[in-house]
Amino acid sequence: VPEKDLSGLTVIVTAGPTVEPIDPVRYLSNRSSGKMGYAMACAAARRGARVILISGPTSLKPPHGVELIRVETALQMYDAVMEHFPGADVVVKSAAVADYRPKAVSPQKIKKHGRDLTIELEKNPDILAELGRRKKHQILVGFAAETEELETNARQKLESKNLDLLVANDVTQPGAGFGSDTNIARLVYPGGRTVPLPKMDKLLLAHRILDEVQALRKVQQ
Ligand code: PMT
């Protein structure tokens, strides 16, 4: 691993799930443990970057030396990311952001009754797509958790969100995606290049992604 090759850079990493309240005791969320994002933050900090880790609820210990901002909902994550974006050089969006939130949050616990219950959902803003619109010098790295059509869906996300790199993981494969200590990723670049990677420890993958970020910065300069 290169020593301190990111010193002087500010890196925003998002991690974990978002949780979207239904009522005071219930929420909608997803299976993200935060491991991938915390590994990204850990790797970037070890390489000398100033790291702002914006994290949904996880049970993980924050890596040494990172600035941790805890959030719960996608809207809170949106605000925290936008606040720090102008001063950032790199953004890595490993969080699994909820695409939808309950339209109305019940102030009281919803009571059981004899009928079925429908919860209406409204769309959350896409944080990464907004960064893609606002970006100036920043390198934007997205993740894509897919269960089908990995490459087609990944390429569509890369282009529609104006990203510099997208890390696609097929979360149906054992040892990839949510919860595990390893991941199996495919790096997808603008212009059609893709690089399939073997199953790797998430920390090793994080360093590999940061190597790619460094290569992209060199091209940009
Ligand atoms: O946390 P772990 O248990 O270690 O699991 C890791 C992981 C599977 C969560 C991670 O590797 C991963 O794939 N994260 C992205 C999951 C995801 O939300 O993918 P997506 O295809 O729905 O979103 C694509 C990209 O847009 C992501 O970078 C996401 O952060 C971003 N996004 C999505 C929706 C939204 N409203 N705002 C966003 O910024």
UniProtKB/TrEMBL annotation:
Binding-site residues for CTP, renumbered to this chain: D99, K109, P125, D126, I127, L128, F143, K157, K161
Q: Which residues cross the membrane?
A: none
UniProt keyword Ribosomal protein, yes or no: no
Q: Where is the DNA/pantothenate metabolism flavoprotein C-terminal domain?
A: 6-215
Which terms in the Gene Ontology molecular function aspect does this entry carry?
FMN binding; metal ion binding; phosphopantothenate--cysteine ligase activity; phosphopantothenoylcysteine decarboxylase activity
Enzyme Commission code: 4.1.1.36, 6.3.2.5
Task: Name the chain's protein.
Answer: Coenzyme A biosynthesis bifunctional protein CoaBC
Question: Which species expresses this protein natively?
Answer: Pelotomaculum thermopropionicum (strain DSM 13744 / JCM 10971 / SI)
Q: Which gene encodes it?
A: Dfp
